[in-house]
């Protein structure tokens, strides 16, 4: 009886050990898959602007081209270089957020001023497109990292501008609850299909790759947004209808 009990215990322990090894092996496999996907996504994001830069600079170098064609090619080379810069900036930003190099330094932060500042900084972009920006703000002080939150507003507002056709409207509003405040950024843009709603925060995810090329995105903006919000103990939600627009709602805890 005694023997049987010992054997049973050991077997049980071995079983538990085997289970944790299997679990660990599976996790390692998932991490390895993520690493491979990441490398192939980064390579792809580098490759496509480089192909343009190589092609157009070769054409400029070899051919006797009319002035307006030269200008157009130089413009493309400039835009594609900007794309590469944005990619490297965003990769560094994400890596540093994930590695927690910059410790989270929360200070009193005037949320309404932060939002207003982001709208003013983006004015050249939205006014050039003939967009209207409406603000419905009131003074609210949070405890937050102002650099990080300003990145959030820049990315969300930047997307609203990128994905809203000329003449549309972007509205920023604040709603307060007892323990939290919600910032809503609503646009009258192209919207996001229901099947993509929960994937758009993934790194490098783009709803429409062909469309995104023309607006220069790299699919990292919302991954950065989501990481910063979760560092702040907040949440992000999205409602969208194709052809009608999208509303991103960021809820942050109140002090
Ligand atoms: P990107 O740099 O490509 O804009 P993001 O991570 O910021 O990357 O966004 C991921 C994808 O989500 C975008 O490629 C776009 O397809 C979609 N998206 C984000 N914001 C909006 C929006 N306001 N309206 C429509 N689509 C959006």
From TrEMBL:
Bilayer topology: Multi-pass membrane protein
Places the protein is found: Cell membrane
Reaction catalysed by this enzyme: ATP + protein L-histidine = ADP + protein N-phospho-L-histidine
Molecular function (Gene Ontology), one example: kinase activity
Alphabetical keyword list: ATP-binding, Cell membrane, Kinase, Membrane, Nucleotide-binding, Phosphoprotein, Transferase, Transmembrane, Transmembrane helix, Two-component regulatory system, Virulence
Main location: membrane
Protein name (Swiss-Prot/TrEMBL): Heme sensor protein HssS
